[in-house]
Amino acid sequence: MSSLVERLRVRSDKRPRYTLDESDDDFPPRGGNGKGKDRDGDPPVKQIEREDAKEDACRKCGLSDNLVSCTTCTYAFHRKCLVPCLNITSDKWSCPECVSPLTEMEKILDCETKVASEETSSSESGSNKKPVKQYLIKWKGLSHIHCTWVSEDEYFEAAKIHPRLKTRLNNFNRQFESTDKSDDDYVPIRPEWTTVDRVLASRKNSSGEREYYVKWKELSYDECTWESESDISVFQPQIERYNEILSRRKKSTDKSKNADRAMRHAEGTPEFLTG
């Protein structure tokens, strides 16, 4: 999978023709999935011992600090190393080795076939390179800037465990095949959907990084998402505008507090009123 934070912003301004796939809620929640307590309240299963798990090190990058441990095996990860990069708030969470990230899929947006992946060694001969089909995935609870490509092989592996994924793929393929890709109106993601319209709030995450609650252009307020400052750093005017509004509100609040302090309760009636 590869990040599309920059790539998605340069897509042409065309209206999509695909039919939005309805989100499925029948997948078990991440971190549950039958790996912890089941629906009958049975005790959690024994944690899987991963022989290649390194103590106090991320499974993906090998570095330490601020790790999130899997509750169903002995792997640990950084939040930023996960695809999709999730803001994990639950104590019970299962890593991608135990539960496919595709259980967090909202919909399939697009597909393409490449002659070879970016990871393919340049030493390989052209005759050995095989076409690789991949799908553009929109993740639940994440904005379009976090959409990622998932290979067909990886998707099929997840579908073996979660058959509903296969049904959703078949539905997408039927829609995709009936769409005229040469039509000027066809595009999977509009650039506006990856453009910050307004910043509504801010907070610091568990790692101390500033996050902003973002309203995206042409999308409704129920599609607002929390974004790390680094992911929307190119939208400094919108961030500065939010900070200015926040500063004015603080000054207004401070003035109001000072005015309240200046008003004191008078004991009795002032002499100039009684004569």
Automatic annotation (TrEMBL):
Domain of life from the UniProt record: Eukaryota
Keywords in alphabetical order: ATP-binding, Metal-binding, Nucleotide-binding, Nucleus, Zinc, Zinc-finger
GO cellular component labels: chromatin; nucleus
The Chromo domain, residue ranges: 103-184, 194-254
CDD domains cross-referenced by the UniProt entry: CD1_tandem, CD2_tandem
Xref: Gene3D superfamilies: 2.40.50.40, Zinc/RING finger domain, C3HC4 (zinc finger) (3.30.40.10)
Ranges of residues in domain PHD-type: 55-101
UniProt KW Lipoprotein keyword: no
GO molecular function, one term: ATP-dependent chromatin remodeler activity
Biased composition annotated in UniProt, kind: Basic and acidic residues: 35-46, 246-268
SMART domains cross-referenced by the UniProt entry: CHROMO, PHD
Record carries keyword Nucleotide-binding: yes
Region Disordered, residue ranges: 15-46, 246-275
Protein name, entry field: Uncharacterized protein
Organism: Aegilops tauschii subsp. strangulata
